[in-house]
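Entry 0007
Protein: Tetraacyldisaccharide 4'-kinase
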Amino acid sequence: MQLLRKLLFPFSILYGIIVGLRNKFFDWGFLTSTSYNFPVITVGNLSMGGTGKSPMIEYLIDLLKPDHQVGTLSRGYKRKTKGFLLLDVKNEAKDVGDEPLQFKRKFPEVFVAVDENRQHGISELRAQRTPPKVILLDDAYQHRKVKAGFSILLTAYHELYSNDIVLPAGNLREPAFGANRADVVIVTKCPLTISEEEKIKITKSLKIKAHQKLFFTGIHYEDYFTNGVQRIPIQLMEKFNLVTGIAKPKPLVHHLKANGLDVKHYSYPDHHLFTEKELETLRKEPLLVTTEKDFMRLKDHFPREKLFYLPIKTVFLENKKEFDQEIKHFVGRA
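Output (structure tokens):
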């Protein structure tokens, strides 16, 4: 792997120059961005997936929906459709993407839309009869044609962008200095017992700017599996097989093992579209547990009593109130 990275390094330099120039053209005004007179918040990352964008979008929905009509806009990764679609709870993941469908079914009162063209998607959302007052952009940090009023950048605890380089030798979509555009940087998937010394070390590594605020979050796993109707306590689920189609399943596997569960793991790539042959293999197993995102793609292929998922949510390790106030203050003045 190290040899391959060395061989690819010259291509990373070239890629970094191209992406860096593109960003500078936006900064200098040679390429234009559209700004909005209503609150638009983007949640994204510099790396290729696995930083916890979906739980953060859900956190923001929970925070804002009591006082505001909220809408979310995603690309709808790996969907088989094109253009703008406003989701209904009856949609299928293959048509709208697994994460947007997860948002809609968890928050049916919220506008959830997909559109690969973020500008067009925002216009369509605002053209609704009772349009959302706040729009959350899922995975749109690199979409410079849209100038969000507030940018949240996520970086995973075990894979900080400051320790990485751009594609293809590394995993960054753009050079690390792109983080300077963010209003807030959040280190996700931290150990719940992270020390102050570690947080100080990470803060120095990320080179947080004066205009930015840094927060640390972890993953809270619920103590039950669910299929949307039934709940089974983790300790009562004696034998099952784990199925994941996410970028980084290791934390979930570690959590299950820490709870004394030894499971057979079927691991697939992120947003994997399961083939009929793969489904047939999985159908031979007596009981399956997956992630909530994967559940959206798998639920129509299995009886309800055979497929469950483990719910998770983002938890702030400190300064939760400060983060909440930061978001509410932006929405209130935008």
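Curator remark: The chain has two domains: 2-68+133-218+315-333, 223-310. The mean pLDDT is 95.
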